Amino acid sequence: MFAVWAANRSGSAWLAFWSFFLVQAFHALIPVSLSERAKQHASETDDAFSRAQRAAEAAIRRLSTAR
């Protein structure tokens, strides 16, 4: 996104290319604690989704056998 902005502002493909890789290089500076927090949040979301899915499947089973 930053590379697109740089290309629009400057009109230079080289500056857009350089900006893209500059942002990619800064990716290595993201603290590990942030990525661990994101993984933990993703696993909590998966657990909540799994519980909701199991509850929905149980409700469908009860509805289908209620005849």
Essential attributes:
67 residues, mainly alpha, 3 helices, elongated
Structure description:
The protein has 67 residues and is mainly α. It has helices spanning 2-10, 13-26, 32-65. Helix 1 packs antiparallel against helix 2. It is elongated. The model has no long low-confidence stretch (mean pLDDT 80).
Short characterization:
With 67 residues, this protein is mostly helical. Helices cover 85% and strands 0% of the residues.
Helix content: over 70%
Radius of gyration: 23 Å
First CA to last CA: what distance?
A: 56 Å
Provide a count of the helices. 3
Q: Helix- and strand-based class?
A: mainly alpha
Pick out the low-confidence regions. none
Assembly type: single chain
Strand content: under 5%
Overall residue-averaged pLDDT value: 80
Give the strand tally. 0
Note the run of SSEs as H and E: HHH
State the major sheet.
Answer: none
Global shape: elongated
Write the layout of secondary structure elements.
Elements: H1 2-10, H2 13-26, H3 32-65
